[in-house]
């Protein structure tokens, strides 16, 4: 079952801006895993390109767009899948319950930062989103991490304390909060597939954090059909147990885009690497001669973006993409031909 959780953290010392995303946060993730499952943690350390998880940058509770590094997702109440449950609520310790799951998009504006211009001061409340695609590998971690509340861990040259965990799944004391609950959710692969539309031919995306792709051995910021949907198809096939053929992607084409390139810094170990990614909106349409099965499978991949980022460096916070509803997609009109 793909799922996203949010760790609510409190800084115990000043955290430099270069330690707020990228490699340093990946090392914090490894440390958290090794604390509760040393064998899995060591395996992940040896395979830093593992795509079964993705990490956001460190988020402030009240983000500001003054730095130009804040990326917004605007979405109204219309969703691609009918909402079958309310937003996650605080669960009392020892209470286990399994409500029906349905993929849902939060009604309010979602915020996600990729970079920071300033360090974060001590005693600052912040949060951090982690998404998992392989439930067989990671499912037990969330319950174990709940036992780490109020414990401190190194983050680069600073330290952070785990205050609480926000999640949308059966829990033992896991809690949720605003705005973090917008990013904490879960839905089984079967439910994502069965609830995907078999009639909606329009797919609208917004790139929330800078996104880059590898094509023919080169890095590009251009979000082509192949780059976006083959990434989603390969990861869906890897973890869902329901394989989609490569030629499925032949049945969709772009109809609109409003994409900008964004030069950003990605922090790796002891160096900073400039990289140009894409931000903005893009729309696709499924071909008119596609049958209901093809439509449902392409919509499944589109809905899968709730948990699965696209492109390269997703384990370092890049490639976060969200689907917008047809009614509320920003500027989602097809391109007009030039006369």
What does this structure look like?
This protein is α+β, with helices and mostly antiparallel strands and 339 residues long. The chain has two domains: 3-189, Alpha-Beta Plaits (2-Layer Sandwich), CATH 3.30.70; 197-324, Alpha-Beta Plaits, CATH 3.30.70. The protein has seven helices and 15 strands. The protein has helices spanning 23-36, 38-46, 135-138, 141-145, 189-195, 225-240, 292-304; strands spanning 3-11, 53-55, 59-60, 70-73, 110-113, 125-132, 152-155, 158-166, 185-186, 202-211, 213-215, 218-220, 252-268, 271-286, 321-324. The strands form four sheets. Strands 1, 2, 3, 6, 7, 8 and 9 form a seven-stranded antiparallel β-sheet that branches. Strand 13 and strand 14 form a beta hairpin. The model is unreliable at 63-109, 170-180 and 330-339 (pLDDT under 50).
